[in-house]
Specification:
375 residues, Immunoglobulin-like, five-stranded antiparallel beta sheet, four-stranded antiparallel beta sheet, elongated
Amino acid sequence: MTIINAIRSIIKRIKSTGVGLAAATVAVAAIVSLASGCGVRKPPVPPKERVTQRVELSGYQRGNQVILSWTMPAANAGRSSVLNIDRVDIYRLAEPSSAPKTLSEEEFASKSTLIATLSIKESDFGLKGLQHTDNLEFAGQAARLRYAMRFANASGQKAAFSNFLLIEPTAKVAVAPTELAYSLSQDSITLTWRAPDKNIDGTSPVSLLGYNIYRSTSEKEPGKLLNKSPVANPSYADEFFEFGKEYFYFVRAVSVGKDATPIESLETNILRLKPFDTFAPSAPAAITLAVGQNVISIFFAINPEKDIAGYSIYRSTDPQLPKDKWQLVTSKLLKANTFQDTSVEPSKQYFYYITATDNVGNVSEPSEVVTETTR
């Protein structure tokens, strides 16, 4: 309605002023053109993503090291941008434990020491977690360490500091256990190691709460803790494994830190192994026979092993015959622990023994020989 009213107003003026038709046409066309532009929405333009310039720094003590970690931004800015991240600068300030916990960025910048500069690659972005290890020296070590980090571009322009991470390291932490080894059985991988004999500052007795045992299935995969609480003795039996699968093991000692917080040592040597099943099952036991009309029924106990594929039953009428010459009466591995031998003759004595076979083909020793005479 507004456009129509405007056109009507122009027509009235033309009549009263005598403006030419050409001028009127131009005026009307201009109004229509403006009207057609009004109300037309352009596609929304997504906001430019701002590269995060401040990250959250976290960390903890492990043995004589402090492990610092942070998460990188999702993406980097272009090389020409002032927000481009070229490196990470990591700072540390040693201070008494009685010093105020609050500190301005200006005070930290003037008092702290640059302990590491890490070059950043494009592959480090995508919310990837990065780490830096700071080795501790306990001769005259200050009671508290304050860490922070910040990004810098290629021109050396620095972003703001991260949060301050405060850590009060303890020197009474056991050194790493050593000589991690293993032995293999049907049911477990048993790990053994040498206990630590001193703390990381060289003192003794050792501050030792126990041990944590870790396992992974890849060199690149972090180890998963196997024990629910620290293991008291320098040995551990891993019963939850699979033959033919590769594993990586390591062990850390656990000490008591400040405020009764457990602190782990550095790890032992990493033990890489791929167990193979070469263990034959135990011989079947508790075999009994029952004679029926033209049949001998055989019963026996199920083997205790978890990987039994089945059983084989052998028969002979001559107990002196070498066992490898006895007749196999089960055409295939028997899955049950009962069997009926219907190929017997009346009034004849038969002798039987049984073997167990596991999933990879290991065969047990023969069971005891049992005998029965048909009617």
